[in-house]
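Notes from hallway chat w/ T.B., transcribed later so I don't forget. T.B. wanted the structure written out for a chain they're using in a teaching module, and asked if we could keep both sequence and structure tokens in one place. Agreed to drop them here.
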Amino acid sequence: MQKRHFLSLSAASGLLLPALSARAEAQADEPVLLTVSGAVGKPNRGPVDHVVDQMMGKHGIEFTQATTFTASALARLPAVSIQPTLEYDNKPHQLSGPLLTTVLQAAGVGLNPARTIELRAVDGYNVALTVAEIQDRNMIVATRLDGRPMALGGFGPQWGVYDPAKVTTLKGKTLSEGFAKAPWGLYHIGAKAL
């Protein structure tokens, strides 16, 4: 290795480490609510720790690196709102949060339309959609229901959701069928390699 190349790498590392450290410190005081693993280009954590990551272990989730999001990290992403009629009370409700594609991009996941994305809920419910399907559904990672944060034990803290009435391929389906690929209690997203 040439001395100049070594010195430029050292300087770049010196700039990068404080930036990564600052990001880690900013999240250290908040619990992680969402983990994106697999084909991530902006990881901020290492592999699954089977002692600490009990739920992931029980759900068979394995990864070597991932990008994590706290409530404030998700809140910093641009939010959108939808107003679907929910299957649980047959009434319209406002749901807001970032687009799922925005979350994927923040984790450094490439948005190739053929890429498979797996969404896993805290109860183990797991769905798989392609990026093209996610974009077609205008799917969001909802963090708020009717203006209030969603709690764990209800639909939250995140809900991978869309408005089935606005999805052409779901027209004529029952509400239950329409929401079949909308896991509430979302805590893990797996981006498959192409």
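Follow-up for T.B.: The first strand starts at residue 34 and ends at 38. Might be a good example for the class.
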